[in-house]
Amino acid sequence: xxxxxxxxxxxxxxxxxxxxxxxxxxxxxxxxxxxxxxxxxxxxxxxxxxxxxxxxxxxxxxxxxxxxxxxxxxxxxxxxxxxxxxxxxxxxxxxxxxxxxxxxxxxxxxxxxxxxxxxxxxxxxxxxxxxxxxxxxxxxxxxxxxxxxxxxxxxxxxxxxxxxxxxxxxxxxxxxxxxxxx
Length: 182
Prior knowledge:
This protein is an all-alpha fold. It contains six helices and no strands.
């Protein structure tokens, strides 16, 4: 739990914040609502990874089709626009699928590591993913349901600021000078 007034961590049985001295009885009620994002963010991250992995399959198919179309044209020495356009179309689609998959992997990574930018990036990707029926639509709606409310933004921000950094300290409480000495 965290203090509603100063944001410092408090024990569940504390009735007053040790940092600012304010009452924490309201914090107990608010903590039940704040747990919502913490419960769902890991599942969301995994689903974004799955969505990205599902886009690797059509990327692979497009690369195979480009090779299948190119090989007979090269054997028969066809030197027309079809030799460039047909494989180019498949390669272009392959690149689009790979970029889409990479963006979904980035959204999943941002949520999994609870990066500060992860929520905003996942929300943008959720709006884009709404047009990819059926799995993308379901994932987009679920992401918007979990991360879009203002309270969810506050909770995500609080979680991302108090998570342990790579140095084993909380990022919210380590000073820039102490982090640069490590």
